[in-house]
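PROTOCOL LOG
Step 1. Enter all chains and additional molecules of the complex.
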Amino acid sequence: MRIYNETKTHEVTVDVVILTIHQNKLKVLLVKRVNEPFKGKWSIPGGFIRLSENIDDAALRVLKEKTTVSNIYLEQLYTFGDPLRYPNTRVITCAYFALLRAEDIKIDMKDAQGVADIQWHDIEKLPPLAFDHKEIIEYSLKRTRERLELCPIAFQLLPKKFTLTELQKSYELILKKTLDKRNFRKKMLSSNILVETNEFTKSVSKRPAALYSFDRITLDSKRGHFFS
Amino acid sequence: MRIYNETKTHEVTVDVVILTIHQNKLKVLLVKRVNEPFKGKWSIPGGFIRLSENIDDAALRVLKEKTTVSNIYLEQLYTFGDPLRYPNTRVITCAYFALLRAEDIKIDMKDAQGVADIQWHDIEKLPPLAFDHKEIIEYSLKRTRERLELCPIAFQLLPKKFTLTELQKSYELILKKTLDKRNFRKKMLSSNILVETNEFTKSVSKRPAALYSFDRITLDSKRGHFFS
DNA sequence: GCAAAAGTGTTCAATGTACACCCATGC
DNA sequence: GCATGGGTGTACATTGAACACTTTTGC
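Step 2. Run joint prediction.
Step 3. Record the structure below.
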């Protein structure tokens, strides 16, 4: 690998929109800025791209600072570069988005005062955000919806074993519309990407639901179809 | 507008894949590099982003250096930033692609020796390219195909008035597959985006073909559907 | 009259959509 | 036995795909 002088300054960052489902809501991970500009405002996690680091790796590094994830859905979203997006400096940012399970966050989200500087925020109730991060989040939602129409990326948001109702709920949260239960199940079961685990939920006072998992082999073999 | 010192160096470029149909082939505009690195090799047109310029404007500027276009299909493609993509320096490039009519190129493409430093190249027969430009072109073709499945961007490649056969041919060149004539016409005519001009071609020894144009009003009103 | 491309409809398969009732469980 | 969410099938509409012959023109 070529060695750069890492002290040289440059003005390109990555920012990562990290989405999950938590408490039955679609949420985005936000951090409170500790430095100027926008000190104290919420923002999506980000950082400068190192000179010897490719952009995907920089995004992954930002993600790994906050989470325990390894094999995750992480996609380059768009590059934002309005000269006025960052005060006093020209900073171009290459935005990514990621889908993961809420449990995979490794940061302790409660500090002594009960107010953490890193928190899940309901997509529907975003606080004022630093820079153009509102626009970036909105675009990531649009892209996530487009992806979901083509491939079942929603499984990234769910535990390894899940019920069809949970899967449907995650689709509904992302697409922001209700889906027909029978049609949803028919489509999912006929796609051959679900495997029955022969396990069932043990809920109280209702019929147990069958637990499914995703068929990694079929998913991978269909990569050309689902993910290309 | 904020004023920057434009002499400050930075390392972010835009590169624009310019596609057209010319001599019944899908072609890309390439320029021969006059400076190191890759001096003498073909590359897609590009340039540094100025510090006070947003990225879309930089792409448009690159495009306008080579063409007479104004109202053109120009879309951000992807940002390429492998640390080794550019020799000796870290250069991140924000790639765009554009579709236009071959007539809209303003550069004289023949010099005294008959060998120009700017030329249309058949997509199927690309010369060796500088940097990662082969990858960038391939990705632009993939994206163009995806877009064409959703919206009729092919009209950007055609003259204002065109026959259905010409339109179909442009689809076939982009999608790299033959289409059924009747199905294609049915779909196009039922989409209400074509207007009959009541003019006809005057070909020799064959039946004249009806000329159509695109309905800008319908196109614009369907922007949410076709272009979002 | 013939070469060359323009123009035209129907059938079938697959996919998406709408819609309502019974089932299994814990209390 | 009842409240709660789990689970199931059919009918219809829309869309995409396959397929072959007649028409118009200039020469």
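Step 4. Note key features.
The CA atoms of residues 33 and 40 of chain B lie 5 Å apart.
Residues 180, 182-183, 187, 203-208 of chain B lie near DNA strand D (CB under 10 Å from a C1').
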